[in-house]
Amino acid sequence: MKLSALSQALLGFTASVHASTIQYSTVTGYFLQDEASTDPSTFDYTAVNFGLINRTYPADKELKHHQSLTQWERFYHQVQKLNDDSPCNVEYKVLFLGRHGNGWHNSAETYYGTPAWNCYWAELNGNSTVTWFDAALTPAGEDQALVAHNFWQRLINEQHIHTPDNYIISPLIRTLQTANLTFNGLDLPHGAAPFAPVIKELFREGISIHTCDHRHNKTYIHSLFPSWRIEPGFTEQDELWNGVTAETTAAQKARSTRALDEVFFTEEYSKKNSYVSVTSHSGEIASILSVLGHRRFSLNTGAVIPVLVRAEHVKGENTATSSLPWTASAHCTSPPVTSVSACVCASSASPVTTPLVATGI
Ligand SMILES: *[C@@H]1O[C@H](CO)[C@@H](O)[C@H](O)[C@H]1NC(C)=O
Ligand SMILES: *[C@@H]1O[C@H](CO)[C@@H](O)[C@H](O)[C@H]1NC(C)=O
Ligand SMILES: *[C@@H]1O[C@H](CO)[C@@H](O)[C@H](O)[C@H]1NC(C)=O
Ligand SMILES: *[C@@H]1O[C@H](CO)[C@@H](O)[C@H](O)[C@H]1NC(C)=O
């Protein structure tokens, strides 16, 4: 069945069109994750100082006693120097992109196997013992967030790392919990920005028909973390997830561009606030990396990747963010008869594109 007309009718995702556009690039030469020789599948950010390469920087010579400073102290100075020396239409930031720890949906996908997960189980809110709608962290996922917490504390103590000036979190429960466990209770350096995050819709996971991509309402999110700011305009109900259509890769990339556009060249995230933490998801971080021109680098649950980003404001229409349709995804209506590589619906349950669960939660 051709579903593009249906999906366009259901959800034509129209983005604002800017009169100017921001071009993003990744500045290489600073982090191991940018090197072709680094294997993402075995990379442990905690074992190699976040991947920061041991090297000298052009800005070192301005620092007295630079030999006694740590790599992270000198790197921060180098980033400040890049910003100081750049024209006002160019900005540098270090984004610390963190993936949430293991969630109940990750465990369930492993349990059911990916084909059966995608074509049936993921469209349910859970089974009789586990909930994966807007999945929470498993105990293993909480431990991964605590690994990140301990790692940040070690870098603060031993390397005098400059901690993030801003914290952004995706509105899904697993990212909220991960950021909470990672950053709450850190003994921050003197003068550091406090952990006062903002919850931003556009940094959420790629929106599929899986219920793990369906967020809770604003009232509930606020009740969990009452002191955290939720961005203006954040809707009470999740108006993006519908259980029928899914964001395409191109539509997600356009959204990721708009998400980044909210962080660069704005008053809130000023040029001098050059370190920004973003707690998000595997698919969304991959999409952001793609916008940034970074090589593909998939993160294990709980992992964090720093990226030095150069952003340049140029004149011209932002074609990357114009309206892009989503597509409907078919799924089974009862547990599938699976093979290892593909999903086969039971003969009594042919594929449909209607949600298996109520969409308003
Ligand atoms: C940098 O050097 C230190 C010791 O001087 C070492 O422990 C660390 O692993 C090195 N980092 C990288 C990324 O090579
Ligand atoms: C529900 O899913 C979990 C996987 O996350 C599994 O461990 C559990 O056995 C399932 N429960 C039932 C009743 O099938
Ligand atoms: C918000 O979500 C909570 C938890 O799912 C639910 O109990 C509550 O009724 C919802 N409130 C609104 C206004 O939708
Ligand atoms: C936030 O983290 C603290 C530990 O730092 C924990 O005690 C608390 O329960 C967490 N809050 C939520 C809502 O998960």
From TrEMBL:
Swiss-Prot/TrEMBL keywords: Signal
SUPFAM superfamilies in UniProt: Phosphoglycerate mutase-like
Keyword Nucleotide-binding: no
Domain of life: Eukaryota
InterPro entries: His_Pase_superF_clade-1 (IPR013078), His_PPase_superfam (IPR029033), PGM_Phosphatase (IPR050275)
GO CC terms, sorted: cytoplasm
Signal peptide: 1-19
GO MF annotation terms: phosphatase activity
Any one Pfam family match given in the protein's UniProt record, by short name: His_Phos_1
Record protein name field: Histidine phosphatase superfamily clade-1
Organism listed in the record: Penicillium cinerascens
